[in-house]
Amino acid sequence: MKKVAYADEFGTNSFKFDTQSTHFIIATVIVKPENITILEERVNDIRKKHKFQTGELKSNKVGSDFKRRIKILNDIVKLDFSIYAVVVDKRDLEVKGFHYKKSFYKYLNNLLYKELFRTFPELELYVDEHGSNDYMLEFKKYVTKNHEKHLFSGIEFDIKDSKSSNLIQLADFVAGTLGHIYDTHKKSDNSSGFLNILQPKISSIRMFPQKYNFENYDFSGIDDNFDPVIAELSLRRINDFLNTAKGTEQKDIDQINFLKLLLIYQEAYHKPRYIKTNEIFNHLNQMRDTSIKEEYFRAKVIGNLRDMGILISSSNKGYKIPTSKKDLESFIRHGNKIVIPMLSRIKNARNAIKLATSNDLDLLDSFPELKKILDN
Question: Which of 3, 97, 146, 220 could form a disulfide with 103 if both were Cys (CB 3.0 to 4.6 A apart)?
Fold first, then answer.
């Protein structure tokens, strides 16, 4: 399933937070090859509609004109594309090595490559050949130098002039808007509104470094049921899985993207809400050639993740990261409604046959684990 990505960055590698950005963001706009021509045309229409005249659709040209940014975002999200981004909070990079440009770029190169490669086995990636895109150009060199050709044969890199590529301009606007959502110098009362508008287009936002806490609403009093032990265990298991998972098969990619979606909602809302199944399917389908089926999702995504020890809360409202005993009880309550009646039916059938055959036939002889449960 080939994809084409256009990337741009926000921020610098500087650690002078009083005057420079607190965050470094890499944003990629991901599209299907067959949609490129029409998307180029539609982005051009948006550029003209919002009075960029002959200039480029650039985030810094909108700046703090929040009303104008919201209008542009509302038009952008009507387009057929998805967003993958890495958001680095430089204030939490305590290792001194990160203060050196080469070390900073080298680590993030590996982080971005790992995420893109396991999600998109076949990818064309384009970056701006002008401007301050030092990072993306270094990323291209990194991949060429460090990765074996047979592993990376499905991925291609190139540079384009943003003046002639409306989709690189789109990546610029997305990266800049994410800057207005996360960076301390750019944040405002409109930040959550920007995120809400972009949310349907976001396939994944990788936060780095990972934070294993829910302090934002642990002390807010918003959720009286909050349990820091359950919340931190849930989050740690998800992040441990994402750090080692490889997107070699479609089910692996679906599992990775589903968990990333849960993390996005946990990050975006002080009291994470349940995500409806249709919302989840809309996100997962952005990475698939065929639409996901509910039976497959429950068995191969949710079921397999739970088999691996990932804690996922579910109810008739959808799915979320559990942060309380109440969240986990909703999952157990749902299972209880299914498991107990099923065990009762099996027990009744077994007893009827044993009675009719004077105990010569036990239906559970071929199922020792189930037999042990019922005998106890």
Answer: 97
* 49 shares its domain with 138: yes
- Please indicate, yes or no, whether residues 2 and 151 belong to a single structural domain of this protein: yes
Please indicate, yes or no, whether residues 109 and 25 belong to a single structural domain of this protein.
yes
Peptide bond into 209 cis (omega under 30): yes
d(CA 85, CA 9): 9
Work out the number of other CB atoms within 10 angstroms of the CB of residue 108.
22
**In Å, what is the CA distance from 192 to each residue of 10, 129, 320?**
18, 32, 20
1 vs 327: CA distance, rounded Å? 36
What is the residue range of 362's domain?
325-375
Same domain? For 44 and 136 the reply is yes
Rounded Cα gap, residues 318 and 200, in angstroms: 16
Count each helix (H run) and each strand (E run) in the chain, helices first. 16, 8
Give the global pTM. 0.68
- The 8-class DSSP code of residue 90 comes to G
**Structural Rg of the chain based on CA atoms:** 24
Does residue 236 sit in the same domain as residue 134? no
Q: Report the C-alpha gap between 313 and 320 in whole angstroms.
A: 5
Q: What is the pLDDT of residue 122?
A: 74
Query: What integer pLDDT is reported at residue 203 of this predicted model?
Result: 82
Report the 10 Å Cβ neighbour count for 67. Answer: 9
**Location of structure tokens 């080939």:** 2
Domains held by the chain: number = 3
